[in-house]
Input
Amino acid sequence: MAFPENILNIQSADSLTEVLREHQVPTDAWGENDTKTLTDLYGELTRGETALFVTAGGLQKYITTIKVNVFYRDESGLYRLVEAAQNNLVTGTWRHRGLNNSLSEKRHAAHGETPLAAASRALREEIGVEQPLALGQTAEIIHPAKTERNYSPIPTVNETQYFQASLRANDYDPRGYIEEQPDKRTFFHWGQYHNEAIVEIPLG
Output
């Protein structure tokens, strides 16, 4: 499935509210229990990260997610970067992550951003790497529409593109990395990797 061409043209927060009302989407619980808000959804739409479109079954949301596994190899072995934890600076809460992929970003697909450009942006914004030793796409999966925790009950179709990156020695920090954002702080740590099925990783 390609990125929908019949996306709704949301020009303002008021027009978004009207669309949700027209399709009988309740938003009273949005923002509770650390879920995203109506303002968050409008921000995603204006950045091109999310699109709303109408099917025979009603309103749906389409996102394209970029997942990047980041590796570094030296004489001592192969290491993979892991998003270890997030600290919400607004609420003070912590979320311990340990995800299957090092980095995750929503692609600005509605604004024409390519998957490779989005993967490069993830490396630059999250861990400050401008030019990796190698970066390539490894897979693409389109997940059927399902209701998720955020923006329930709108079903979401998620097109996920997977990348693998190798770092140069001058970009490798054995202490890990911290991504600073206005509302949260994300911590990345290195862990030794032993999966023999991994695509060949060059020495940094």
The chain has a mean pLDDT of 90.
